[in-house]
Design goal:
mainly alpha, 2 domains, two-stranded antiparallel ribbon, globular
Length: about 200
């Protein structure tokens, strides 16, 4: 998460009863957070995530609900953006969000079955973050199982003679990311012994 101050302070609207309405629905840049074609300067991406971090701290539950709702959006870019935002908030390790880390991981679980290549890459990036954040050990094995699954799937896809060069390159990228993640997994993490293909989280 970027350091320093946000370029503009978000405006909040108080109700007569003293509660505050946060303008989350009026954030048209959300699907563009991961779009480097529209945000050519890397510092813009950091500033947007920083401002979103401020909003997250002001109203964690509403923020998670709002960003999480985009994970079911039809637009691939919106789903990727939501995963990127959650990953950024987790990596920032904000004090106000400590008790909400598991809620963000829970919100993204629906994307584990998403067949979009870009979403898969975003989930792998999210998984990398989760595996390095303290307090999320109980989720580690489920995400490692996902990484195993994607590594196997990409290997199968790469052996297909019907795969075009562009798709083959994407599958190679996914497999390379999976291998990197698996090579750096802390096998001492609680529950990691269950992180094997075909195993599921109890109760899911």
């Amino acid at each position: 998460m970027a350091s320093g101050t946000c370029g503009s302070t978000p405006h909040f609207h108080p109700h007569p009863d003293g509660t505050v309405e946060h303008p989350f629905p009026s954030l048209p840049f959300l699907p563009q957070v991961c779009d480097h074609a529209q945000l050519p300067r890397p510092e813009n991406h950091a500033k947007v995530l920083y401002c979103l971090g401020l909003l997250a701290c002001l109203s964690p539950d509403q923020f998670i609900s709002f960003v999480g709702s985009w994970l079911q959006a039809d637009k691939e870019a919106s789903r990727v953006a939501s995963l990127s935002i959650f990953s950024g908030i987790l990596a920032a390790d904000l004090p106000e969000m400590q008790e909400k880390k598991c809620d963000m991981v829970q919100a993204m679980r629906g994307t584990l079955s998403d067949e979009s290549i870009e979403v898969k890459k975003a989930v792998l990036h999210f998984s990398r973050t989760v595996l390095t954040v303290h307090g999320l050990e109980e989720w580690a094995w489920e995400l490692v199982a996902y990484v195993f699954k994607q590594a196997s799937s990409s290997s199968s896809q790469m052996s297909s003679t019907n795969l075009c060069s562009a798709d083959a390159e994407e599958e190679h990228s996914i497999r390379a990311t999976c291998v990197e993640l698996l090579e750096n997994v802390d096998v001492s993490v609680r529950g990691m012994s269950q992180a094997s293909p075909g195993r599921r989280r109890s109760g899911s």
